[in-house]
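Protocol step 4 of 6: record predicted structures for both targets in the notebook before any analysis. Target 1:
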Amino acid sequence: MRSLMRVLISIGFGLLMSLAPVVQALETSGAQVARDLEALYNDTPVDCGTASMPSFLCSGVIFRATIPSAAYKSWAPSPAAVASGGFSFSYLRVDAEFRRLVRDENNGFIIYPPLFAPVGRQKVAILCMFPVDGATNIRTENGCGVAQGAQSNSDLCHRQGIYTAQQWYDKRVVDGFSALSQCGFNVKDDANEKATVSFNEAIKAMSLGDNGTIHQQNEMRLATAAWNVNRPETLPIKAFFYLPGGLADAQYDQKDYFATTNVLVPVIAMTLPGTRAQDASFVFNEADQAIEMANPMDGYINYAQWIKRYDPGTRKEEWSLSVVPTQRGRMATAESTGAVYAELTERYGDDPRWAYKDVNKEADGMRRQLVCHFAIARNKPEWNMEPFRRYVSHDAAVAADCNPI
């Protein structure tokens, strides 16, 4: 079957690709996507700003293993999944690791964390979390509830009085490590603070036991109702990924998605940790791309990344866009400042962390900070700019070292 897919790669999409104009990925640079994924993987917050916002909303790598086919779209839930109301993803983070995917698959797609989905992209709804594969295709309640054929109570954990990782593991031992008999942690939005606690316990449960769950992927159920396949260009797909042996299939999906939506997202080489002492990796290789992507070095911005850091002015953690310009961007003249800023906003302005909404571009504090960096910090390795900073005069920005409050 997969050999047929590779034939379709070389034949079936050739004409389409020669006719369709290339639309770059939102980040433009595939290397940028790889950096973002690495940052998400290493970020382990307790919550996403409030106790009612579980950390999967803003951290970790959420992905789905798939098999390409000419008979269906790999990003579409199966008819059975639609009927159940839920479909399965996995969640990878430095404290939630595993070394293999379901059925040892080797490719699929990665989505944005819900809070970081760009403007115009769908926000997914996450229903429940199983520390290991939960056999969710034969469970009730969107795949989160009772499992058919389970030998003990397999309902949601809180309904059994199971609230902690240790309680979950103790039941798993009693049940002989049965996938069917384990319970899933409820992380629905309406669970509020309890969803945050439940998710954190599910992550802790992955490390219990001699080897923890390193040998088997976890399972996260997403609501199919919040995944509108009729508008595939708005799906929150950040990248297609592959493990060893899966490159051709990832390239097929990249081409198929582009042919369907005219939106280009990169192919990323993902490596899973073999042991708990190892880390996953995410690498962008130009040679892996079935469709050529823009080279950021041709523009003004090489890459940028969102970082959270303490601000002495507000005395709290704030989001900062850390920008690394290209040599062309660093040496830009006053006449080209507008072009530099236009590229910055095109590539990063849709991110929810860019809080600026004022339609008056000249009153934008981010623009003022950019101009200030040209004036007094042109040669700094990174230009850190914060959307919360108010618009002030150029002299005031310079006097505040580009950090007006």
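Target 2:
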Amino acid sequence: MHRIHTRTRTRVSAAAAAALLAPLAACSSSGSPTSPASSGSEVTRGADDRPVTVTVTPTGERAAAGEPVTVTVAHGRLTSVTVVDGEGRELAGKVARDGRSWVSDRKAAPGTTYAVTAATRTAGGSAGRSRASFTTEPAGKVNKVDWRPGAGATVGVAQPVSLVFDHPVRNRAEVERQLRISTSNDTEGSWGWMRDWSGRDRVDWRPKEYWKPGTEVTLKAELNGTDSGADGGWFVRDYTTTFTVGARQVVEVDLDDHQLTLVRDGEAVRRIPVSGGTPGGDKRSWRGTAVLMAKEGTINMNSETVGLGDAYDKMVDWSMRLTWSGMYAHAAPWNARYFGDANRSSGCIGMSDADAAWFYARVRAGDPFEITGKDTKGVVAPGNGFGAWNVPWAEWREMSAVD
């Protein structure tokens, strides 16, 4: 830790001057401000004032990261503290009510140099200023985040905020406390931890019910300086995204009736004959609520990538992804004779070219597909796309690490 004794401007005896100069041997101090990279102090002292001693932790050139910066004072009070990193970013904090200490709101990030300036006042009312600096040890391993939706997006009413981590997150509660969701209408919601389809750790925030159209949402993931835990490494940056919720659109898919209905603001816009997954095996469709993840246009679909052998390998138009496991809504002209009559696809929801083009132009990422049907292969899991809506609210809240 840095212990910085203030230097006075009053006249003292030679013996007293020698005693006062001893603690400052490693500091630079003068009537003008010292550089942020040095440690030092200056003070205007009144009669009978004792020198103020300021202590800063962490300290040194390879200080441990992941701890708050603490500044304490003896023989006086702190009036303000400023902690700034090498890029000019400030660590905010608060001076205690008794003026004896200051603690940063956030933790020191790895591989960062911080300059600390503390303004003080002695018991007799004299003002002073102390400076110190320290550098934290670099991160041995860095954890990064892939998040959805992207900044500035307009999404459907079922879109969650989703973060997938490159490395394991063992300190889930600590990480979750750094994730802040703010909305324009105080929407109730909760985080839930899960294993993503990719096998990586993931946390999603979903509202209790579908978003209200027009809601503005901001995520601030203030993760810089947070330790993921064993095998996960450090976060070395913050993340933020802001998006808006569009019109309320719900896609109702009845696989028993072989029909898809686009419902906007409670009114049926169009009913489309479809064919779902073939009953009785692995080609069955998922049921429950799936969320449109992305509109991918014309893509190559290969059955071998989803564990169905060499059943198909073709270019498919108007493709709309519903799960990571390969369930889409798309044009399927080769199945035209089954639309509205039977489920004969390899798990996707197929429709005519004309219907698919019309539908593709009107839906957006985040729109929910509410899928029903007797012969399906189960409910969409939370980590298989955005299946959080298939978890009852009480259970979803239990998936949070802090709620």
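Step 5 preliminary note on target 2. The chain has a mean pLDDT of 89. The chain has three domains: 2-135, 145-246, 249-372.
Proceed to step 6 after PI sign-off.
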